[in-house]
Amino acid sequence: MSQAEGWSGSGASGVVIVSNRLPFTIHRSARGLERAPSAGGLITALEPVLRKRGGTWVGWPGIELKRDEEIPSDGEQPYEIQALRLTDREITHYVHGFSNRTLWPLMHSLPARARFDRKDFDVYEQVNQRFANAIAMCSRAQDLVWIHDFHLMMAPSQVRLTMPDARLAFFLHIPFPPYDIFRLLPWDRELLRGMLDCNLIGFHVDGYAQNFLDCVERRLGSRVDRENMVVEHGDRVVQVGVFPIGIAYGDFERRARETASQPETQSERVVLGVDRLDYTKGIPERIRAFERLLELHPRHREKVVLLQLAVPSRSQVAEYRALKREIDELVGQVNGRFATATWSPIRYLYRSLSQDKLAAIYRDADIALVTPLRDGMNLVAKEYVASQVLDPGVLILSRLAGAAETMREALLVNPYNADETAEALNRAIDMEEPERRTRMEALRRREQRDDVEAWVHAFLSTAEESRAAINPLSVHDFEAWLGPYLTRPRLALFLDYDGTLTEICEHPAKALLSDAMRKVVEGCAARDDTDVAVISGRKLDNVAEMVGHPGLTYAGNHGLEIRGPDIEDFAHEDLTHYQARTAELVAALDVAEVHADGAWTEAKGPTLTYHYRGVPPDRWPALIKRAERIITAAGFQARPAHCALEARPPIGWDKGRAVLHVLRERYGPSWSQKVRVIYVGDDQTDEDAFRFLAGLAMTFRVGPADTLTAATRRLPNVSAVQALIEWLAQRDGWPLPSGPLGPACRGR
User: Fold this and answer.
1) What pLDDT is recorded for position 360?
2) Do residues 514 and 662 share a domain?
3) pLDDT for the residue numbered 593
4) Has residue 421 got a pLDDT over 90?
5) Residue 349 dihedral angles phi and psi, to the nearest 5°
């Protein structure tokens, strides 16, 4: 085996599997570095995929490797390995910190256990970037990069920066929580945006997918088509799918047929629990439910045992050590209460077992009690079903496991309800053979059909299909977004100009308002219940001339000067002072030679815009840094814009304050009781207005989704803005000045 620096094959497209862990773990012994197969459902599901298809697996080997240490070979390897070396610091903050102490409990809807630490998140982001770098090294343009699980939720966006045309897919193997829980995460929007740079995002069950779509819509403002399960993310359309994972069904069935019985299951009737030691698995709740069975139905004493197998996990984490102590005490408590000279109600094994022994125990157990408090899927339930090759047992399954969505023939319980679980146990113990066989045969047919290979095939087939599409904006979208909001008698509509009403052009003079856009803006202005304002970074006279409608309010220079009907003309008191200093700044920029290769300066009175769109992108960082230094030295603020820097007076005035000025002047101090406000803009300068209007208006950010926004919703382009304005102009059946516009915004 080799630590691949790149893809070694050729020809057809391949698969690059990316996960936190490699399919094996490295540990040190007296003989040096040794490797052993990694545990977990993810490895079990994916390792056979690469063995059959070939490709590359990118992941961490499980320990910090020294500089001179190489991963030991294990004979012929049918796929490549790209091993990512993590430091102890990265392991502490990325693995044990943000992944295990923040995301794991939060995603399992246990927020009280989550810890939110900025340092953990920063390292998580850095390690995700390292994974992205490794992906870029080992993947080809035609490969499918399949990224897995909560450790790597930001990696897709970082891959997309260096591989803009890459085929990226992501699968989440744990639950995705509801909006009210996920938004507790201080970096929720960053993780959502990271995932949305994929072409396909997969979840186990529909409930998790719907939670994700809800969070995307409410936290990012992205347009969501729930019928077709797609998300409009800037200029990208992302497919969201539901793919319930299966197991290697045939392997478990074969082992169950071939392996001899184990001593743990040869006497009393056995209720079996098999779990990794984790607080999400509900082991203490299960023990209490079994105790409740013995209380409510004493006839089962000395006839039934709970065999609980707990696989050691995260023993270095204090919470897990505390959980083990709690389980030890509970087992001792129940055994001390009910045990006799010849019978103990609970047998507790804290260790791992081989797959052969586990399959035999599954086969011989009368009941599987699978009761996690929350679980992405739960493969134990499926492994038990696959192993039922003799006298069929009964599966009792938590309603809060993803597997409960499809395994409806199991007895479903609420793991927090000890009485309900105890009664399900009583029913399972007494269940007659015909009912047991009917339920188990139905479960076995489904799991045999929907095994891990079927899951892989379904996901990869979807990933390899043509790109997802979303229906054009329609009246139904705008009615859903704005219908419940427009309850005041008046509407104040604020519109940016460049990038909002017109496309961004290489020179501002070329950004002319189209006839169609002019028509819908005039349609809004013609309504007696709507006031329209255009608020721009351009000079006041220039933006008024470009729009050319006398009945609108115009704000220039980011609101430093304002003119409109029913309000007094406004010019900020510092306007004259900074207008005189702008000429000095222009001269300073000229002397510094920052205008090379197509950059130029646009003086606008008290403000200035330094444009570098025409400069080769590789020169942007140096020119921006130099221009920022000159702008700041001249006493101005340097603010980023579209391929430009804005030099603005540091006077605490921006588009947000300009909007407030217009609203107060036109409608009075209690304006929020009289008018609804909509603001549409595309630039970082519009973020000032979005932040100010948060909770007070409906705001729309136009353009790509490459930056976070404080806006309520996003619109992909100028055409979508036109459709929005048309809907506003024609709402309640109002006609446009010269009749209907056409297909920009129609019911579909």
Assistant:
1) 95
2) yes
3) 63
4) yes
5) -115, 115
- In tens, the pLDDT along 54-68 reads 789 999 988 887 777
pLDDT in tens, 190-236: 999 999 999 999 999 999 999 999 999 999 999 999 999 999 988 88
Helices (H), 54-99: 88-90
Are 644 and 657 members of one domain?
no
* Phi, psi dihedrals of residue 19, rounded to the nearest 5°: -145, 165
Of residues 519, 550, 517, the one with CA closest to residue 738: 519
Percent of the chain past pLDDT 90, that is, above it, reads: 67
The mean pLDDT of 444-463, rounded to a whole number, is: 94
* CA gap 30, 123 in Å, rounded: 33
Q: Average pLDDT in the 588-608 region?
A: 77
Among candidate residues 646, 686, 392, the one with its CA nearest the CA of residue 555: 686
Question: In 162-210, where do the E strands start and end?
Answer: 167-171, 200-203
Nearest to 682 by CA among 653, 652, 651, 719: 719
The Cβ of residue 59 has, within 10 Å, a number of other Cβ atoms equal to: 24
CB 557 within 8 A of CB 539: yes
Which residues lie closer than 8 Å to 85 by C-beta, 6 or more apart?
60, 61, 64, 65
Residues 279 and 369 in one domain: yes
Which pLDDT score, from 0 to 100, does residue 266 have? Answer: 62
- The residue among 624, 648, 672 that closes a domain is 648
> What are the phi and psi torsion angles at 369 (to 5°)?
-105, 95
CA-to-CA distance for 192 and 270, rounded, in angstroms? 44
DSSP state of 3: B
Query: How many structural domains does the chain have?
Result: 4
The CATH number of residue 298's host domain is: 3.40.50.2000
DSSP states along 615-657: S-GGGHHHHHHHHHHHHHHTT-EEEEETTEEEEE-SSS--HHH
Q: Are residues 515 and 633 in the same domain?
A: no
Query: Phi/psi at 518 (nearest 5 deg)?
Result: -60, -40
Q: What positions carry a catalytic annotation?
A: 496
pLDDT of residue 6: 31
Q: Are 429 and 367 in contact (CB under 8 A)?
A: yes
Same domain flag for 400 and 525: no
* Residue 68 burial by Cβ neighbours in a 10 Å radius (0-12, 13-18, 19+): exposed
Provide the CATH number for the domain around residue 505.
3.40.50.1000
AA letter at 220? L
Distance of CA 487 to the CA centre of its chain: 33
Residue range(s) defining the domain that contains residue 56? 15-84+127-242
Q: Which two tokens stand for residue 414?
A: 């609420």
Is the model's pLDDT at 10 over the cut of 50? no
H or E element, residue 470: none
Q: SS3 of 142, please? A: coil
Q: Which residues contact 503 (CB under 8 A, 6 or more apart)?
A: 511, 718
* DSSP designation for 466: P
pLDDT in tens, 468-527: 788 888 889 999 999 999 988 899 999 999 999 999 888 888 999 999 999 999 999 999
Rounded to whole angstroms, the Cα distance separating 686 from 262 reads 69
Task: Report the relative pairing of strands 55-60 and 32-37 from DSSP bridges.
Answer: unpaired
Q: Which residues pair with 82 in a beta bridge?
A: 58
What CA–CA distance (Å, rounded) separates 159 from 599?
30
Give the whole-angstrom CA distance, residue 600 versus residue 616.
Answer: 14
Contact 454, 494 (CB under 8 A): no
Whole-number Å distance between alpha carbons of 44 and 148: 13
- Angle (nearest 5°) at CA 640 between 635 and 645: 60
Listed residues 191, 218, 242: the one ending a domain? 242
Residue 234 and residue 284 share a domain:
no
Residue 717 neighbours by CB distance under 10 Å: 17
Q: What is the DSSP string of 13-40?
A: --EEEEEEE-SEEEEEETTEEEEEEPPS
CB 293 within 8 A of CB 422: yes
Beta-bridge mates of residue 181: none
